[in-house]
Structure formats: C-alpha cells, structure tokens
Design brief:
This protein is an alpha/beta fold and 591 residues long. The protein folds into three domains: 196 residues, no CATH class; 184 residues, no CATH class; 120 residues, no CATH class. Helices cover 48% and strands 9% of the residues. The strands form four sheets. It has a six-stranded mixed β-sheet. The chain has a three-stranded antiparallel β-sheet with strand order 9-8-10, with helices on both faces. Strands 4-7 form a two-stranded parallel sheet. The longest helix is centred in the C-terminal third of the chain and has 20 residues.
Amino acid sequence: MLDPTLYGLLSQIDRDEIVLPAMQRPFVWKNERISRLIDSLLRGFPIGAVMLWRTRTVQRYRRISRDIDTGVATKYVFETSSRNDNRYLVLDGQQRLTSLYVCFRGSYDRRKLHLDVLSGDGTDKDPGTEYYDCRFLSSGEAEALNGEANGARVRFVPVSSLVNISPQKAAITANKIGTELGLNEPEMVRMADTYIRCASILGDHKSLQVITVDEDPSDNTPIEEVLEIFVRINSGGLVLLKSDLLMSLLDLKWNDIQPELQDLVREVNENRPYEFTRDDVLKSLLLAEGAETRFDRLVSDRNQVELLAENLPLHIDNVRRGWQLLGCILLDDCKISSERFFRGGHNALLPFVLFLACNPELSHSERRKLVLGIYVALMSGIFGGAEARMGVFARKTVACAYKFPLRELCELTRRHYGITSLDDLLRRHLDLALNIAHGGITLDRNPEELQRDHIFSKARLQEKGYEHEQINHYANFHFLRATDNLNKSDRPPHEWFRSPGKAPTYSDQDLAERLLTWDELEPGNFERMLDARGRRIREKAEEILGFSETEITSLFAKHAEERKVEQEDGQGRSKLSPLDSLSFYRPSSNR
C-alpha cells in the first residue's frame, strides 16, 4: 500500500517501488526552481500533485535519479518489470519527486542542499519572493558562509540532517545551538521555528497530492489508455508529448530504443556546437524507413508502430553516419557554428541527413551541392514549420537519389517564395548572410550576446527618405557585441568605427574583415557602400557555397521543360517536375 507522506514516497523511491516509465523525459529543473519548491514546503504551501500508476504488467522503467550532475551526459539504464511486481510508475510529477529526493537524500552537481536556519523572516518581504535561503553547497562552501561573513549572520545547515531530527526534539536542538552561537531572542525564535518546520516535513501528507491509477487490484487499465492519460495530463506542447508516446509504444518491442537513441544523440553532438535532439534523430530514422515524421499521426496507427519497432533499428548505423557527416559539412564547409543560424529548428537539415545516410561516399561536386542546398533550405525557410513539405521532399525526392537533387530543391523554393537569385536568398536570412560576410563566425557560449546592427543608422536613413529595402539590406548590417552596441546609438559610422566607446578603434584590417572601407563610411556614401559591400558579400558567398552567382541564378531558373508544362497546364494544376526523369534518381528496384 502506498504511503503518501514524503517520508513514505522517498523510502519507496529508495526501494525502487516508485520508478519512471520509459516514456518519461530527463530531469530538467534547475537548482533555483528546486530551492523554490523547498521554500514552498517550509511555508506550508501546496506543491502540486503526482500521479502514479500501480502496474501489474510487464513494463519498461528506470530508476528516479538520486544525484543530478548537469556537467555529465546522463545515460539511463532501463529495466523490465515482471508480472505482479506492483511497482508504481510516475505518470506526472517526475520533476517534483526527483527534486524532493535530491533535496533530502541526494545531491545536485555534487553539492547538498543547505538551509540558512536564520532565514524565513517574511517581514517586509513580498509574498512572491522566497523567505527561506536554500542553496546547494559543499561542506567547505557552507563553512565559509557561516558566521557573520560580510556583516550578515547566517547559519547554513544540510537539509538532510534537519529533516531527520525528531519533531519533539527540534526546538531543544535549535535552542542549544542558538545559545552556543550567541543568538538574540528573535533569532532564537526564528531558528527554532525553522527546525520544527524541517523536522515535520517528511511526515507531511497534505502539501503533495498523490493520485494513483489502478490502486485496487481489480483495476487493470489498458496500456493505451494509460499512455493517453500521460499525454493529456502533460498538455503543454502536444506534438512534443506525442513523441514521448511514440517512444513508449516503440519501446514495447524495441527494448533498447531509449539507450540507443541517447547514445546516438550524444555521438552526433560530441565536439560539435549543435544541440540536436532525440526527436531529430528519431525523425531521421523514420525518414530512412520511408515513414511519416509527424508523431501525432504515427501514434494513431499501432500496427504501423509495431512494424517501425522492428525496422527502425536496421537504420541506426546509416543514420549515425549521416548525422556525423552532416556535422562535418556544417562546421567545415558551411562555416555554421551555432544553433542561432538554424531558423525554424532542425527540420530543414533532415533531408540532408537522409541523403548522407544513403550516400556516404561524396565526390567534391556532391559536397558542394550539399553546402549550397543547406544554405538554400536554411535561408529560405522552405521546411521551417512545414514538416509535411519536408517529409514529402525527403521521402519522394531525396530517398531515391544517388546525386543530391539540388535543382529540385531550388525549384521548390522558387515556387513557394519567388526566390530566383543569390541576392534573394541573402535578403531572407540576415544572420546567415552576415555569417557569410564574416567568413563564418565562431560564437561563444552566449550566441545571443552577438547582435545584428545597422552600419548606417536606421533613424538617419529614414529621415533622408530611404526605402525599407535599402535601410535593411544585408549589406547595411554587421555583427557586434551587445556591450559595444550600447555605445553606438545613431552615431554616423565614420565616427563610431574610429571611436566605438570602450572597444578598441577599428583598424584597416578590422574593416577589411567586415568587407568595408573607410571611404564607404563617410557621409553621403550610403548607396555606394550598399552596392560595393553587397557585391563583396555575394563574392564571399560564392567562395563558401562553391557556386558562382550566375550558376545559382541558373539553378533557380525555370527550364524549358517546366515552361512547356506550364503552358500546357492552363489550370495551374501541380505536375511532376521534369527533373523526375533525370539521372540522379535511382530506379525503384534499387531502393
């Protein structure tokens, strides 16, 4: 029988009687949120609810984490319950339960939760702030803070020791310690109150509501309904949660899916400045199988999910290779070194992963086509927020190609967005245009610190009557640090570049790296700068993309066969592209 007190819940976690089902995602709460949870407990506030499923069927599960280390990639070990195990699986409340265990019996980044037992005075405090000062500290850090450091009297004590004091002895213990510390009466009262509150926490059964499914042995909710409960109670972000549901359904037959995908994600991100996710990898596996990538559609067809569970493992090695090759191309050839440049997420990259998974041996010309294709996909946004379009292109065009269908991608982009030139592409994604202008930017751990700023002041240009397209042309932007931007205001560029606040004066070399000259920054030279720097940026793009501006324009151009089809199809109905018959398509028998 479940013990609903905090002591009972923690003890059952210790005995692995309360565990996490395979569908649960990793622990994500930060130490600030955990500390706020304990502040709520000490103030007697309700801290939400947990929902547990008492299962008597075979299920995949993992232990609740005891010690959280944010600096180490977590690798979970999954186990399979036997019938009549009577374990409780956490459907909702994983973050709370893990946080409580970490606070009272575990650690966070190798530090124990400490509480300043002299805190808790809510006088003159906003109720929305924290009354109790809780921090994850090492014993050395706590010792250094204790006493009257910096003129403030504090006393940090491990919470794990406070909650194990008998409630009957809490006040006596507090008074004894307070006397030894020479506390005054208000401090003695406050510390005694804190000790009593801590000593009573584990016996509490009201702050955390515990809901159980199938507590009665006669109940036996089908797994499909339990999974739907999981989706509905975690209602924020339905598509994301559908991926959890799909993972859980796949796990019923592919028992190693969780650790295998964890390993794969870790491998593709290793030594790379990217943050590819489990869902990205799962979608690439689905594309390799020729399946739909929209999770909400997949979970409604359980027969298809069973087939996927059998077939997806066959693609692991090829997909791993595809992601690793893509990482090399992004970093070495595309000069893209930050998540900042992946507008609309990673969906735009999936067709390229699929192609590389099927075609690991790349010629120089194919590698060039991939570089341009990646920039076309990212800059145009052709697949951003359009997963169905991405899926169709990947399954029907890329999967059967032994040469990357770059022309088809360019034609798709032209039809949807009217892009016909390199200049059109650069106008659509200013960050990537500037990444090209700078020859690839290596960003620090805070890429948002780098800001995009007008070279010639927007306000001054508006006063002079320049059009929006000219003012916000990619050639009138450059990257600079946020701190430098604070000092710029609307100063003329010929002044600011010579005296940029606290930053060093720009040298001739600095300007050359930004594809600028001093003369172009002089008053009255805006249009001249726009034309000259725009041309230099396009030349830099030719260098990185491996295609001339004329060749890129040709790729976006309508070809004779397509124009003929359009003339014959006066109704504007969709027709198969003439490229379907070109030699880069594999015969269906070879698929």
